[in-house]
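Q&A log
Question type: sequence-to-structure
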Amino acid sequence: MQHVNIGKHAPKNYETLMALTGQAEHDAADAGLDKKLVELVKIRASQLNGCAFCLRMHVRDAIAAGETADRLAVVAAWWESQYFSPEEQAALLIAEQITGIGDQHVTRRPEVAPLSDEQVSAITWVAIVINAWNRVAITSHYPVAP
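Response status: OK
Response body:
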């Protein structure tokens, strides 16, 4: 596939996705979700999608929000650790369900979710948006260099 920076060739679409991102993050904050939890959702979806550009960006954002290296090191195996609260575990599960929806066809609410409907909705939108950004970055072949 030819790599074309789709944001440059369709700037209105890019701007619309930016606006959706802003709304999803606003809704997450309004639902009482911590910025670190939101970044964990973005990181986990980006890991599953193999998006190096978004991983680098959101790991940096998570660190800036106060996330620790230990927790970031085990996000890929979050269920195997005791680092994450029940709310974070539920959010990471939602991120995985949304990211793998085409493969797993999972659309039901996690049984373990100690989250309100508003929080589930907000996390779901964050996961949808980061999945869209992963596809933009990967198909546009955004550079990731040290």
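Response note: The mean pLDDT is 92.
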